[in-house]
Every structure is written in structure tokens, then in C-alpha cells.
Amino acid sequence: MADKPEEPERGALAPTDEELTLTPSETLRIAVDLPPAPPREVPADEAAVAIDDVPVDPGFVASPTEPTTTSVAIVASRLATGPTPTTETSGTTPAQPAAADVPPPAARDGVSRRDRLRGETSPQPESAAMLTADRLLEVNRKTRPGPEGTWQRFVYNTTFHGVNLGDSAKVRARKELDHRIQKQFEGGARFVPVLTRKGGVGKTTVTTLLGMALASAREDRIVAIDANPDRGTLSERVPKQTRATVRDVVHKAASIGGFTDFSALVSRDETRLDILASDTDPLLSEAFDENDYNVVADLAARFYSIVLTDCGTGIVHSVMRATLQRADEIVIVSGGSVDEARLASETLTWLEANGYGELVSNAVVALNTATQGTNLVKLEEIESHFRSRVREIVRIPYDPQLAAGSVVSWKNLKPLTQLSARTLAALVVEGLPAERD
Q1: Region (Disordered): which ranges (predicted)?
Q2: Is 264 left (phi over 0), alpha (psi -120 to 50) or beta?
Q3: How far is CA 76 from the centre of its chain?
Q4: What contacts 38, CB < 8 A, 6 or more positions away?
Q5: Other C-beta atoms lying within 10 Å of the C-beta of residue 273
Q6: Is the dihedral of CA 325, 331, 336, 342 positive or negative?
């Protein structure tokens, strides 16, 4: 065999066919230096794609009799404007879009406050409750209200409204509590029964305080219904303006066409709380059953945002089932004695055993400290017990006006009593659903 010719140097010209003769078993190698290719620029309207790395086993070769398929997800880059493209084969599930491509909740549900300031409109119809003063009024020297507080007001007037130090800490706390009570609702009335197994613990008093605190802070209508199967005393806590009772509402239900007709059957106090009295005749009060309550509740739901129900003594009377079926939240009233606290706890046990566990976990306990034996009992231990079963607990302090058992004047209550009632109202409102079908 002839000697193998030497390979030409890199960059040298290769010999021609006449000068080079190779046998079939010999190999010719030629090295050529080429300039690097310029990178290709992707047009702006062309979406780039990224293919996830798929591990490949070089020693594995698919059998012709057992074909296999592999699905590779192709995710469009941020330049893409259409839906996420995917490449899939049989037996696989579509690839999920990347988390970065999912629009934020504000973009899906509507526009944010910043978007509204830019003039953008919401894709969903807005309710009238969204037209608030905070949204519509531009805060400046003219529209900003004057401060509340002795020193703050003095500085404000002395400087001819030039220096506004803002409200005092006490006023800010009051306005914050007002804001919590003024939570807006959509989708019908909210029902809040006030109940306990024992009488004489101040359940009617708590219903009155809760209703007054709600009515004094909110702009919508609040009504308290006396559903006591015995003779209730709820109507005696406000100045009586009518002798009508729940029985009259049942009889006149077909003729009640608007709020004017219904308002003629209730009594209203200085806070705008409406009270619907119970029957005063014991013979008639026994006839007030769950069907009658449903009639009254249906009418009240047409005209009021929050309906309080004074359920009377006990929890097994005929009206209780209809009351609990409509309840969005419950308030349990407990006294400060051992017996009263135990019966209030047994009320929670009865509710849990009868399928109202969700109401129990969301309940608020009003601990009336004006009952007998309160000074001899460790109230902290009672609160610790109820805190393990319900959502919140509020103490109702002793007040001479409440102890008299007569008409209650909201403005004449002690500041601590008003604060307790407003705290109870805020906790109750926070436990109610804001929206409902």
C-alpha cells in the first residue's frame, strides 16, 4: 500500500483530484476556519418560546412494538399576547400556565383605586355604596373637616383654620369604632337572635343596647322584634308610640305595601331604633308560632338591613326553630353568677347538638355584670371558658338607668356603658356576611 500523504496545514489549499489519490480505506480530513454567524434578531411581534429541559437516556432506544410518547410544555414569553401554547400528546394533561402570566385579583375582578384615579372604569357594575365621601371628595384645606378635641380645636381656631393637628386619640378611637359598625351589606337583611336558656339575665336589655348602638352609628334601618312566647318587655325600653304588636303585623300583612305602612306598627326611639312589640295578652301570645314569626320576618326583611330578635326565655319554644333557621349570627347573654354562666354554656351545647355548630363558633357572648352574685364570681374564669367556645366576649357594666328596667335613653347612659354597647355592635357586624345571594 502506498504511503499516506501528509495532511495539508490549516488554512492551506487542498490538493486537486489529479494530485491526490485515496483508497477506499483511507480518510481525508480538511479543517476550514469559518467566521461566526451573526445572532438572529427576533422581531418584536414574534413570540419566543422556552422548552423545558427533558432528561434523555442515551442508552435507551424505544422499541418499535412499544412506542412511547413524551409531552413537552412550551410556555410563551412575555411578548406573547394570546393564550399559552402547549404541545401535548395522547395520555397527557394540558400544561398549566405559568404563575407570572396569571393576572392579579385586582385585574380580574375590577379596577383598583389607582386605576379609578386615572379615569378607568370598572368592568363590573358598581353599587351605590361605593360612592363614599372618601372616594369623591378631594382632601384639602377647604374640604378637610376641623379637628375634634379641646387642644386641637383651640389651635385650629387660633390660627384661623391654618393649622389642623387632627383629631385627638380618643376621637380617632371613636371614629374607628364607628367605621367598624358602619360595614355595608348587600343581598338582603341580616338576622341576629339574642337568646339564652335562663330568664332574668338581661337579654332584653342587651337587645336594646345592641339595637341602639347599631342605629346611632349606621345610616340604614334597624329593627328589634320581641318574639317572646310569654309577655315580652322589649317595647317598654323605648317610648311607646303605638299599641300595635306582632299579632297586628300578621293580621295586616296582606295590606302592608311599603315602609310607611310597616312603620305605623313600630315604636322608634331617639337613635332611630324601631321596636316591634310582642302580644301583651298571655292567651294570644301562646298562639304566636313559627309560621307567624316567618310572616313578620319576611316583612321586616323588606324594609330593614339588620333584624334583631329577642327570643324570650328558653330555647325550645315554637318560634326558636324559625329564628335559628334565619340566623346569620347569634348573641348569647350570660349573667355573672355560677348558675347563669353554666346555663349559658349549656345553651351553646344544645345548639351544637342540634346542628348549629357554625353559629356557635361565630357567636358573641354578652356577659352582663349587673346580675346578682357578680361580685363573688371570678369573671375572668367565665370569660376564659366562653373564649374556648365562641368568637368574642363583651362585658356589659352596671348602669343605674338599665337597672331601673324602664325606658332607656341612649344619651343618658354612662360612657362606659355606651362603649360596651358599641363594641358589641362592632363585633356583631364584623361577624355578619358582607355579601349574600
Answers
A1: 1-24, 80-128
A2: alpha
A3: 37
A4: none
A5: 27
A6: positive
The C-alpha cell at 400 is 343605674
- Write out the H or E segment, with its range, that includes residue 51: strand 49-51
Alpha-carbon gap, residue 290 to 288, rounded angstroms: 7
Assign residue 267 a region (left: φ > 0; alpha: ψ between -120 and 50; beta: otherwise). Answer: beta
Helix (H) or strand (E) holding 267: strand 267-268
Q: Is 89 helix (H, G, I), strand (E, B) or coil?
A: coil
Q: Indicate the DSSP class of residue 66.
A: B
Q: 218: which 3 cell numbers?
A: 349606621
Which residue is associated with the grid cell 374607628? Answer: 176
Cell, residue 382: 367565665
Stated pTM of the model: 0.68
- Residue 222, judged by CB atoms within 10 A of its CB (0-12, 13-18, 19+), counts as buried
Residues in Cβ contact with 300 at an 8 Å cutoff, skipping those fewer than 6 apart: 189, 223, 225, 262, 276, 307
Strand partners, 195: 332
Q: Does domain 187-430 have CATH number 3.40.50.300?
A: yes
Q: How far apart are CA 132 and CA 109, in angstroms?
A: 20
Q: In this structure, what C-alpha cell is assigned to residue 434?
A: 358582607
Chain centroid to Cα 330, Å, comes to 17
State how far the Cα of 339 lies from the Cα of 344, in Å rounded to an integer.
Answer: 9
What residue ranges do the domains of the chain occupy?
187-430
Q: Show pLDDT as tens, one digit a residue, over the chain (437 residues).
A: 445 555 555 444 455 444 555 565 566 666 666 666 666 665 655 544 444 555 555 444 444 455 555 554 544 444 444 444 444 444 444 444 444 444 444 444 455 666 665 666 777 787 777 777 767 776 666 667 778 888 778 887 888 777 887 888 888 899 999 999 999 998 899 999 999 887 788 899 999 999 999 999 999 999 999 988 777 789 999 999 999 999 899 999 999 999 999 999 999 999 999 999 987 766 655 567 889 899 999 999 999 999 999 987 766 667 888 999 999 999 999 998 899 999 999 999 999 999 999 999 999 999 999 877 777 889 999 999 999 999 999 999 999 999 888 899 999 999 999 999 999 999 999 999 998 76
C-beta separation of 271 from 412 below 8 A: no
